[in-house]
Structures are given as structure tokens and as C-alpha cells.
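PROTEIN ENTRY
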Amino acid sequence: MATLATFWLLSQASPVLQTPPHPYRVVPNWGALPGGATWGEVPGMAIDASGKIFAFHRSEPPIVELDSAGKVLKMWGDKMFAWPHGIRVDRFGYLWITDGLNRNGLGQQVFKFSADGRLLMTLGTKATRGEGPDLFAGPCDVAVAENGDIFVADGHFNARIVKFSKDGTFIKAWGRKGEGPGEFNLPHTLVIDSRGRLLVGDRSNNRIQIFDQDGTFLDQWTQFGTPSGMFITPDDALYVVDYNVKKGVFVGSARDGSVKYKIDDAVAEGVAVDREGNIYVGETVPGTTLTGQPGGHIVRKLARIP
């Protein structure tokens, strides 16, 4: 324990981040909604194997499907969610959604949908907040392991990770409010790397914590700011968005925790990346981005320059 505590204390000092100029540009007017509709807050972005992008926003209908050019393909999910939060497409092609508050008889649940929008599974108890095996209190994000096990970042009011089997059976939960290894202050986003490690964006502790799938603490990184959203590729390229402190998109590696680029063109909460390396972000903070363009409550494409 002394060794672990010493490691944790030494790792609190964030290194000064110096990265080369990034090879991305903001695509103007990407993702305009039809009929003069406007985006609500966009906390979640996802992408499927075909390159279709999903934006999850706080307006009706909340799920917006787009192609890579920003054309809206489909909008759905009316009146299904209290407070849209996280959205993921897993390795099997299923869509996972977290609903982070309870309002009007809805919320505090995690949903699994088929690719065509059929509801397949629900975790949590509708409009009921708590800490038991069938309750959440502000679920933020979902990651699905190779064997189908489900991990939920139950972070806005609880401070824990909850693990379920692929059929939705509760397995375990770990974490509590705090700053030490295995403790959390808003576990807001999570991904699984090629080694099967669980990376948890512990937002208000300004770090990413790394665990095995049984919840054993392995490591932590403090060079990615305050992680609000993360995306990982099969070869462990790691994309982290921070709209709170360091404000931008970090492009790095989950293999060694290195940061290759920092992009100051978006103040985002949700992030997804296509096979060409183009980045799609969803913003929740109103106002102006660091580039001076109108910001907040919109989606952006950051195109990778060849």
C-alpha cells in the first residue's frame, strides 16, 4: 500500500504539455439540422463501422444520425429520455445510451438498441435514483468488453463503475468519492483498450484512471486535462476532450499515455473518430470556441489534413 500511495502522490504533478502543430481543420457549417431546427446541448457522439455518426443532444428528437459530410440521415428517440448524456456503438454494432437525470417519469437508465433502433435491453430503474445493483444516479457512459461484459460510469451523483454480464446481470461495482487510487470525483467517460484495460475519465479529479476488468487499479494519467469524453481506436489511438480546464481535444496513445497533438478548435464533451482520422465533437458549453467561431450546443467536424 505504501508503494501505491507513493506512486499516486508523485503522479499528481501534471507535466507541461508541449505538442507540435496539429493536422486538423474545422469544417464550416458541418451538421446543420433540417428545417431550421437548432441543436441542443450535445454531450454524446458515436460512430459505427460504416462511418455513420450519431449525435445525442438535449432537444427533440434527441438521436441524430449523420453521414461524414454532415447530412442528416435520420432523427429519432422522441420523448424517450429525461436528460440525454452518453452514446456509444459497441464492437458488435449495438447502440448504448445513458439517461442521466430523472424527470417526468423518465431517466436514470442505460439502454441498448439494435442498429435499426429497436430497444433490446434496459439497465436501471426508471426515474429512480440510487446506489444498488439495479439503480443509477447520473449514469454517464458505457463500455462493452470483448466478452460482452458491460461497464457503466455511474458518475454524476454516484462515484463508481458498475459491471454487468452481457445479459445485464449485475456482477460488481467499485469506487467511492475521493481522490485516491480507485476513488472518483465524477467518472464521466470510459473506454477499453486493446489489452482489455478499462480507462476511466475521472473528470473532476483531472485524470484518467486505468483498471483491469475486475476493478484493480493499475495506473493513472494526468496529462489529458479534465476528461469529459474519450474515444479509442483498435490500435489504441486515444482522443480525449476537455471543455473545463485545458479546453480542447487531445490526440494521444493509450499504449503509453503520450499526447501527440492538442487541438484548440473545439470545446467539446462528446467525441468520435472515423477510419480516416477525422474527429467529430459535440459541444455543451454556450458561447465562443477558442477559434472565435460561434460555439456551444453544436456539432463540429475536425477534418484531418492529409
Summary: The chain has one domain: 41-304.
